[in-house]
Amino acid sequence: MRLTRPVAAVMAAICTTVLFAAPASAAEGISPSCSGAIVAQAPVKLPNGTQVGRVELWYSSANGGTNCVITRSSLGSSTGGIGAYLWLQDGRSIYDASASYNSYAGGAWISNAAGICVKYKGEVVNASGAVGTGGRTGSWGNCG
Asked: Where does the signal sequence lie (predicted)?
């Protein structure tokens, strides 16, 4: 089958774009740390008021604005698990949580988030199974 010159040119342009386009950068992920600076933090407390850790919201202007959450436990080996949660007002979300964590969870990060408001939460479970929480879970804020 022989292609006409305009069709062949379009096909060549499509193939070049598909084969040589730069790969899309990751828009979310889990890493051992966050970059940028802490823009908000809150204590993580059990229902009885005992502080069992803290949750940190980080922001970096890199990659179109990146929000990142880390939860740090103060219970050491007595921790029954830790979670770090991040929600963006545009509907994206990510979390890192495990019963096997005993010092921190996260960084759970989402990029391409400049100007988008967030909610974030940290959880720490003690050895008895009581769950401590902290963060911004009510109204949207920290609008990068």
From this structure: 1-21
